[in-house]
Prior knowledge:
The structure is a homodimer. Chain A is an alpha/beta fold. Chain A contains 14 helices and 9 strands. The first copy, chain A, has helices spanning about 15-25, 35-40, 60-75, 85-95, 110-120, 130-145, 155-175, 190-200, 220-225, 250-255, 265-280, 285-300, 345-350, 355-360, and strands at about 30-35, 45-50, 80, 100-105, 125, 185, 205-215, 260-265, 330-335. In chain A, the strands form 2 sheets. A 6-stranded mixed β-sheet of chain A has the order 1-2-9-6-7-8, sandwiched between helices. A 3-stranded parallel β-sheet of chain A has the order 3-4-5, with helices on both faces. In chain A, strand 4, helix 5 (about 110-120) and strand 5 form a beta-alpha-beta unit. In chain A, helix 1 crosses helix 7 and helix 3 (about 60-75) packs parallel to helix 4 (about 85-95). The termini of chain A are far apart. Chains A and B meet through helix 5, helix 11, helix 13 and helix 14 of A and helix 5, helix 11, helix 13 and helix 14 of B.
Amino acid sequence: MSHTDPPGAVPAPIDVPEAARWLAGRVVRTPVLSAPVIDRLAGARVLLKAENLQVGGSYKMRGGLFAVGRLAAAGHKGVVAQSTGNHAVAVALAARTFALAATVVLPVDAAATKVARARAAGARVVLAGTTVEERLAVARRVSDETGHPIVDAYDHPDVVAGQGSASLELIEEAERAGTPLDALVLPVGGGGGAAGACLAATGRPIEVYGVEPRGCDSLARSLAAGRPVAVTPAPTIADGLRPSCVGELPFAVLRDRLRAVVRVDDDEIAAAFRLLLLELKVLAEPSGAAGLAGALRLATDATLRSLGSGGTRRLTAAERLPAAAGARQRTIGVVLTGGNVEPELVARLTATARIEEEVAVA
Amino acid sequence: MSHTDPPGAVPAPIDVPEAARWLAGRVVRTPVLSAPVIDRLAGARVLLKAENLQVGGSYKMRGGLFAVGRLAAAGHKGVVAQSTGNHAVAVALAARTFALAATVVLPVDAAATKVARARAAGARVVLAGTTVEERLAVARRVSDETGHPIVDAYDHPDVVAGQGSASLELIEEAERAGTPLDALVLPVGGGGGAAGACLAATGRPIEVYGVEPRGCDSLARSLAAGRPVAVTPAPTIADGLRPSCVGELPFAVLRDRLRAVVRVDDDEIAAAFRLLLLELKVLAEPSGAAGLAGALRLATDATLRSLGSGGTRRLTAAERLPAAAGARQRTIGVVLTGGNVEPELVARLTATARIEEEVAVA
């Protein structure tokens, strides 16, 4: 926490460096990747932290493992979690690691691959409704019945700290490479990862941005209103970014520290997905690809139009990425948060790729 | 070269460590990846060297850059190359790096993404026939006309040494991690990468295996005959493994040092492609995935049957992976040689994936 924060702004200590130290050797230190085509599209150096290569297929493993590990150390025998998918998978795997019982609650329309992964990790899987409120009600009932604590997907200091460790690794690796980040971009579901990024960037001149799918923009609306505002999430291919409301704890961090939210549409997310797959050669889930879509919009505010996704609002001057000092090339960090995606969706998104698209950007 | 080689067995010095030193900082030091599901399937630790994340999308960049760099240093003003695609892309990019002219000859049925990438790198692209003989004839004519030397895709000591540097990095990283390789598996087109792997493994107790698609098994037939034998390549999704004949220089290395060739069919390659995409989260081209298909066959000799590709011949005892000493888990290294694949093929291969397949192996 910065010393300029009003007392009580963040209700619990969130120590990203401590989480990073604890997680070292317990999770994969994922590589930082780049591709010349993406740099050219962005007109900037784009460093992508490949957390889709993380254990469990997403950076949620970091927060899940850190939080569950602490609960195990405190003597708990089981945990309960609810999420759109990746946090549930992470908590299931973390519980197995520490030999705890786990019950995870997912929406009835969860990605089948995420349900299968949570089950394969040995968790009891409950499918309940489609909204976070429905899942939370079930999770609270299970917690009451079993006495096992709930590990919230984002309203939990250890989860925020764990997620932040991915950003901290990216920040430090960029510094070591002599290309420190000017900006850091994360997709926003409940806001835990973006809040962790803000805390990881504390003390450094890095602007942190969140990215939300159009119509799933609880954070953008909450920042405008000055308090958490729920939305009825619109349909999006980014299934991980559908929580109806940003978490209280992430919001308390983000309202003071986030520079802006960038809204992207499914066409932009799909174009970013294809760039990652065909140029970077990694599989990101659409929620993960949304971070790159937002970074490209930030960097160029027009680039993705040329890839066929016109008609989106331009950023205001206040939202735009600040110019780099002097002639130095800007460096934008993006956390590719996860890679758990349905084969059918991969097929659908790649079937529409065009060779001309590749050549145009090469 | 080992001192036990008969004099003249390898017609030119091939110094893999020298190539690795020269390439350090000039190519990406690609990550070594693993996935629990793949380890479980193999019943062994499988370390995958992700050269699909290499500049140009394949490990061919290593040999191309090393060879072209030496030609540039020797004063040449241009180069000529022929290949099924990735070597052409690599030579085109390498020539641009050293400001040389480049003419590359690809088959008329080359993967469109590879043609586009060679063109985007500024090379003159000539499409000629479907066989290596047709391409070589054109390449020789261009070389005669321009005076620019041919950089052969595998019959060239610098190319073999450069390709070998990927294996050397994998071998050394596995040693540093305390899990030295028992076996090292590479797909075989012209044999340059497998020959480089054999040379990289010199002096270490590592068995090196080659993998060929069924019906594109020039190396297997050549080893049986004791001399290079051409085949009429059968159709395969592994477009990079279709050269009709193993190179003379690779053959001279492989006949003495390779333990065996594993033949795989397209179903096995497709299953390995899906494992890499959906579990490891990286896009390998089928030619690259063939290495994992071969490794899985080697490790279990039956595993892939359960993924729906029955009916393939079992390995002979002489071909099988040796048992690990004591109770130690075996470690198998695989070089994922490239990731340049048509979007349409990605769509086709993922459309057939089944969630049950994922669950079955999880």
